[in-house]
Design a protein that fits this description.
Layout: E1 8-13, E2 18-21, H1 23-32, H2 44-49, H3 54-66, E3 72-78, E4 86-95, E5 100-109, H4 121-178, E6 182-187, E7 193-196, H5 198-204, E8 221-223, H6 236-241, E9 246-254, E10 260-271, E11 277-286, H7 288-310, E12 314-319, E13 324-327, H8 330-333, H9 346-351, H10 355-370, E14 375-383, E15 389-400, E16 406-415, H11 417-473, H12 480-511, E17 519-522, H13 523-541, E18 544-549, E19 555-558, H14 560-576, E20 583-591, E21 594-601, H15 635-645, E22 649-653, E23 661-668
Parallel strand pairs: 18-20
Antiparallel strand pairs: 1-2, 1-5, 3-4, 4-5, 6-7, 6-11, 8-9, 9-10, 10-11, 12-13, 12-16, 14-15, 15-16, 17-19, 20-21, 21-23, 22-23
Helix pairs in contact: 11-12, 12-15, 13-14, 14-15
Length: 675
């Protein structure tokens, strides 16, 4: 503040210490050669006492102002060493909450001239008046600047307080945002809602209007627990603004979208030190789930009471402290004990347990009650009223207090005598079934061994038969009838040879002795070779045979002979079951990393009930004595086993008998080139 003043100015504390001064003050006293008492930190009273002239008069006047004996002091004197130059010293008391002292000003005034003939007296008076006005303006300027500074400090303090209020409001809003309850604050007496959190918005379904009837105007409806709608003056906020406290009142609130929620409400008025109501605070909590659980619990208790009457198990309730037991009607319905014979004691219950089991059962229950367990269970024979022993399972649920002490045990005795008998019968039946299964497996193994032996024994005489047939065919003297007979013999012998080969393959598969020689094979070449060899048979039967194979090689890792057998079995099977005029289509394509072979015919088709079993051994669609097609039903079973050994899959599809069939084989492609 002092730096903006053009005059010499300094602030002097009540002790006489100069606490602040401006540049003109320092320059003025430096020109006069004044002591250090006039600078900041110096004692101006001591400096004035040691000085002469105006400073000698300044000391007593300044001391009276600092002591509070007078409000201001002025003196005027000539400047030492500068004749005709005068200055005026002005002292004003300064008393604020932050400072107690005085403001000292020194201003130049117009020189005082003696009257002469060339300078009229009036001009001198005018100069004096101007000097006095200048001094007064300087004093007014200092006081005005001081007032401005005070107002600036007051404005700064007001802004600081406002910022504190804003911070507290933000903190309050942050606290409300973290609260699990919905909160609403309204000012009194207008009831205007000044603050509410997002939890309340979620509870009521929409933002609230800033009015005393905010809940009523939120688009929903509030009802008392009995279903009566809230009146305009019954809302907790309005009652709290009237001075009433609301604790735990429940509101059945229907939101604007039709959904309902039960709100537990508390409302209190906020009063000042005189007891006047400043505001009201209302909290809301959602207790819908609690009330639902309570209703379900009451319903569950009712059901339990009804169930205890409906079930035939004997339900018991033991009070641990008194050792008294309450029984349900099941003790009579299940075990025949009349109510008048049932004593509500632990000893009566133990008397109904088989003697050799009593101590074990009692010790087990005592150990469960002493430990931390929540359940107890045991099995033992229980005596019925007619004297027979029933096998029972006794289960109990232990109720404990907060300290873990057992208070009650609620249990049920279930008669499992019939179950035990059924379990014994089931165990015996299972043992018989296991023996029968073992016998069947042994018979199946014996059958496989028999088929293997028979196949080998049949092959031994069949080989020379086929050999001699070839010799007889080469005899030029054979007649046409003889050649026809020889052809019939050869076809049947080769058919028998195929059957024997299938039996041998099945025998190797079941015994795990079938071995493959893997090598990169072009599956397209295999399919073409089989197709060429099967064409005469198809033409003889009057069946159209079509082939579609990609030009690019489809290389798979497999046994060439066994893959040829797979394709030949599929094609020959299709020819066998396709009638005259039918068609067979063989396609080989690529599907990603797999080769897909499809054999589709327009033949007999497969019945739906046979379709899931078509790849099983000895499974044939026609098992009657008049069946048209021969064979053992092993061809497709061998196909499935060989495809599995090559890491592929085979499926059959058909829309039923008379609609043909599609057999599909998928094999993984190999990255190696075919040899």
């Amino acid at each position: 503040m002092l730096e903006v003043l053009p005059s010499c100015a300094a602030l002097v504390a009540r002790s006489g210490e100069v606490v602040a001064c401006n540049e003109p003050w320092i320059r003025f006293h430096a020109e006069r050669g004044a002591s250090d008492g006039y600078t900041v930190g110096g004692d101006i009273l001591a400096a004035c006492d040691a000085a002469a002239g105006s400073d000698g008069r300044l000391g007593p006047g300044l001391r009276r102002v600092l002591d509070g004996l007078q409000g201001d002091f002025e003196c005027e004197d000539e400047v030492t060493g500068q004749p005709g130059r005068r200055h005026r010293t002005i002292v004003r008391r300064v008393l604020t909450p932050d400072f107690d002292g005085a403001l000292v000003l020194r201003v130049d005034v117009a020189p005082h001239h003696e009257p002469s003939e060339r300078q009229p007296r009036a001009q001198l008076d005018l100069e004096r008046l101007v000097g006095e006005r200048t001094a007064e303006l300087s004093r007014a300027n200092v006081l005005l600047q001081y007032e401005i500074d005070e107002r600036h400090r007051a404005s700064t303090e007001r802004n600081r307080l406002l910022e504190e209020v804003r911070l507290e409001r933000r903190l309050l809003a942050a606290v409300l945002a973290q609260m699990p309850l919905g909160v609403m604050i309204a000012e009194a007496p207008s009831g205007r809602v000044v603050l509410h959190n997002d939890q309340l918005v979620r509870l009521v379904g929409r933002p609230l209007a800033p009015t005393a009837a905010a809940l009523a105007t939120s688009g929903g409806s509030a009802f008392h627990p009995g279903g009566v709608r809230y009146g305009d003056d019954e809302y907790p906020l309005l009652r709290a603004l009237r001075g009433e406290s609301v604790d735990g009142e429940e509101i059945d609130y229907q939101r604007g979208d039709g959904s309902r929620v039960i709100l537990r409400t508390c409302a209190v008025p906020v009063r000042d030190e005189h007891g006047d109501i400043l505001a009201a605070v209302v909290t809301f909590s959602d207790v819908t789930e609690w009330r639902t659980v309570e209703r379900e619990l009451r319903t569950s208790e009712t059901r339990y009471r009804l169930a205890s009457r409906a079930v035939r198990d004997a339900i018991w309730d033991l009070d641990v402290a008194s050792e008294r037991i309450a029984w349900s009607d099941g003790i009579t319905l299940r075990f025949g004990h009349p109510p008048e014979t049932v004593a509500p004691t632990v000893s009566w219950r133990l008397e109904q347990i088989r003697p050799q089991d009593r101590e074990r059962v009692a010790a087990g229950l005592r150990a469960a009650l002493a430990g931390p367990a929540s359940h107890w269970q045991d099995e033992y024979p229980f005596r019925c009223f007619d004297g027979r022993w029933a096998d029972v399972i006794d289960r109990g649920f232990i109720v404990r207090d907060k300290a873990g002490r057992a208070l009650r045990v609620v249990g049920a005795i279930e008669d499992v005598s019939e179950r035990r008998r059924a379990e014994a019968e089931r165990a015996a039946l299972l043992a018989r079934e296991r023996r029968a299964r073992a016998d069947a497996e042994a018979a199946n193994r014996a059958k496989d061994e028999f088929l293997a032996v028979v196949s080998h024994e049949l092959r031994t005489p069949l080989s020379p038969i086929l050999g001699f047939l070839e010799i007889l065919f080469e005899d030029p003297a054979a007649t046409a009838e003889q050649r026809t007979a020889l052809g019939t013999i050869e076809r049947n012998a080769r058919s028998l040879s195929y059957l024997i080969d299938d039996l041998l393959d099945v025998s190797r598969i079941t015994s795990g002795k079938l071995s493959l020689e893997y090598a990169p094979i072009d599956l397209g070449e295999v399919v073409r070779a089989v197709f060429d060899s099967a064409r005469p048979a198809a033409e003889t039967k009057g069946v159209t045979l079509a082939l579609r194979v990609l030009d690019d090689p489809l290389v798979v890792a497999g046994d060439a002979g066994r893959l040829t057998q797979v394709v030949a079995n599929l094609v020959s099977n299709a020819i066998k079951f396709t009638p005259l005029g039918g068609a067979i289509r063989v396609t080989l394509a690529r599907a990603g990393s797999r080769a897909v072979l499809r054999v589709q015919d327009t033949g007999k088709g497969i019945a739906p009930e046979l379709l899931p079993h078509v790849f099983e051994r000895f499974r044939k669609g026609d098992t009657s004595d008049t069946r048209v097609h021969g064979g053992l039903g092993l061809g497709l079973a061998i196909v499935r086993h060989l495809v599995d050994l090559h890491g592929g899959s085979v499926t059959a599809e058909s829309d039923g008998e008379g609609h043909g069939a599609v057999l599909t084989v998928e094999l993984p492609l190999s990255s190696r080139r075919a040899t």
